[in-house]
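Re: Re: ligand-bound prediction request (bumping)

Still looking for help on this. To restate: I need the protein modeled with GNR bound, output as structure tokens. Inputs repeated here so nobody has to scroll up.
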Amino acid sequence: MTIKPLIILPDPLLREVSTPIERVDSDLERLIDDMLETMYDAPGIGLAAVQVGVTRRLLVIDVSKEDDGKQPLVFINPEIIASSEDRSVYEEGCLSIPDYYAEVERPASVTVKSLDRHGKEQVTEANGLLATCLQHEIDHLDGKLFIDYISRLKREMVIRKFTKAAKSKAAL
Ligand code: GNR
Ligand code: NI
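Reply:
Sorry for the wait, this slipped through. Here it is.
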């Protein structure tokens, strides 16, 4: 297994719409394992394939507490088929926007249809942190970031800061 480098803001890849996965084969299995290793190493509670440079509709999540051991979840071609009317607010962060956090309001519960790592259809009813994380990750597959939900002023400040950081890094 391999820890892959993370794609960081303002990389335009983060704004691409990822394409559906057509075959669950051994190459995909390897990508899933690399994504899980990359997520645990970061550490993060979720990771979309685009964050390791692969614009495919695949994400991994683990929202378990440390004491309960690892509980990796894999979602291939995930689709939100139902969302609750009631909302919840979480302080979100993103491995592609390191060290920036902001509160985001989203549906408190969602139902997600996807394929599991064996290509079998699964339906997941999520609430709490898992519901927020699933929505955050599925947004990535559509080129959307959590900073799209904050004020334009704050968003532009964050983008400017990361653009400057990328430029000074490139100049080295
Ligand atoms: O590690 C992560 N934590 C997190 C916290 C609140 C809401 C969403 C997330 S996802 C994030 C990892 C990440 O960037 N996934 O795309
Ligand atoms: Ni993210």
